[in-house]
Specification:
Elements lengths: L9 H10 L6 H11 L13 H10 L5 E7 L6 E7 L4 E8 L2 H4 L6 E4 L3 E3 L14 E4 L2 H14 L13 E4 L9 H11 L12 E5 L3 H9 L5 E5 L5 H7 L2 H4 L2 H15 L3 E7 L9 H11 L2 E7 L13 H13 L4 E3 L13 H14 L1
Parallel strand pairs: 4-7, 7-8, 8-9, 9-10, 10-11, 11-12
Antiparallel strand pairs: 1-2, 2-3, 3-4, 5-6
Helix pairs in contact: 1-2, 5-6, 7-10
The structure holds S-adenosyl-L-homocysteine and iron/sulfur cluster.
The site of iron/sulfur cluster (SF4) has 12 residues, from loops.
Length: 363
């Protein structure tokens, strides 16, 4: 299979051009089209001669993701289902700025991207792990989720501005289990010649892979870190997150503290509220101690129920009660009412629902 163009770095593309008997200055032009042009294929590369276009198209694939379904509408959360070259599916979700997410209205758009097909970590409440782990995404498959959404919304963004200002690595998969490909992709998306998304505007979410958190703290970029906590005691976490048996809260919080001390950026603790599982007020003091020690803010997210898993989101009253109790203890806590509840916006849900339907239609 041909290598993808979107993960070619400037020096790699320059070497290819030399081999192909083409001038090296074309590398800048090609990369500009690929990363900033919001185009869908080679034919749209205006200033590239036809001969070079045809060499490019027989040496590289243009995009490694193909849109098969788009769900949602203007100014709401939009979910994209992509088909990969081997027939697997992954999802991305575009989230427009909302006062509850950012604290102010703005034209910010955040894209939530996937990093694996399926997930090996098997959290009990999550749709992504339901059918196990299939494979890691390649750097190009992460990058192409971003570039393809930009191309789809080209008309809405004028004067060469970009739509996506922020990234959250919270789609399908455990990003830190695909560490090298993830970092390759993010370092490209962070580059000025690519999407130029600031490292502080990129948040990596992990269920708690301790060695990789420590490794991440040693790389130079200021990527933000979010920890999927979902329980403030080992008792609760063990029940719903198998990873906690390998890396219990004591080890996890040591690793996060190391990250915090090296990066100086604020850490987020993600806490989905699941009825009868982790929404008891007894969790509040433990969560308050953890967030104070890690100088972390806490995002409380009402659980998005997944067909067949039997977990529910608590009532609005108990959600508010939990958050108020945290705030009373001095925690920087926000209740994040995402907009995607009605379009299966939690990771893995859309893929699970339509994968079989689409496969049977196409075969
Ligand atoms: N594997 C990584 C990143 C992907 S999951 C992680 O676990 O952090 C992104 C976030 O969505 C995690 O916080 C995860 O716990 C949460 N999540 C999973 N299923 C959910 C659901 N049904 N409703 C709400 N959040 C969910
Ligand atoms: Fe994997 Fe994250 Fe889902 Fe857990 S919550 S199964 S780590 S994707």
């Amino acid at each position: 299979m041909l290598p993808p163009i979107s993960s070619q770095k400037p020096d790699e593309l320059a070497s290819w051009l030399v081999e192909a008997g083409e001038p090296v200055y074309r590398a800048d032009q090609i990369l500009r089209w690929v990363h900033k042009g919001s185009i869908c294929d080679w034919s749209q590369m205006g200033n590239i001669p036809d001969g070079l276009k045809s060499k490019l198209s027989s040496s590289f694939t243009f995009s490694s993701v193909k849109l098969v379904r788009k769900q949602g509408g203007v100014d709401t959360t939009i979910k994209f289902l992509w088909k990969l070259s081997d027939g697997q599916y992954v999802e991305s979700v575009l989230i427009p700025a909302s006062p509850s997410f950012y604290g102010e209205a703005s034209d910010r758009h955040t894209l939530c991207v996937s990093t694996q097909v399926g997930c090996a970590y098997g959290c009990k409440f999550c749709a992504s792990g339901l059918e196990g782990f299939k494979r890691n995404l390649k750097p190009s498959e992460v990058i192409d989720q971003v570039l393809s959404v930009e191309a789809l919304f080209k008309e809405r963004v004028s004067n060469g501005r970009r739509l996506i200002t922020n990234l959250v690595i919270m789609g399908m998969g455990e990003p830190l289990a695909n560490y090298d490909n993830l970092l390759d992709a993010l370092n490209i998306l962070n580059s000025t010649w690519s999407a130029n998304i600031g490292a502080r505007k990129i948040t990596i979410s992990t269920s708690g892979l301790v060695p990789q958190i420590i490794k991440l703290s040693d790389q130079p970029k200021q990527y933000r870190l979010a920890i999927s906590l979902h329980g403030a005691t080992d008792g609760v976490r063990n029940k719903i997150m198998p990873i906690n048996r390998k890396y219990p809260l004591s080890k996890l919080s040591d690793a996060v503290e190391i990250y915090q001390s090296k990066k100086k950026g604020s850490i987020t603790l993600e806490y989905i509220l699941i009825e009868g599982i982790n929404d008891g007020i007894d969790q509040v003091p433990h969560l308050a101690i953890l967030s104070e020690r890690l100088r972390a803010k806490v995002n409380i997210i009402p659980y998005n129920s997944v067909e067949g898993l039997g977990y529910q989101r608590p009532s609005i009253t108990s959600q508010e009660c939990f958050v108020r109790a945290l705030i009373d203890k001095g925690v920087r806590a926000t209740l994040r009412r995402e907009k995607g509840h009605d379009i299966d916006a939690a990771c893995g849900q859309l893929r699970l629902k339509v994968e079989k339907k689409l496969d049977s239609k196409e075969n």
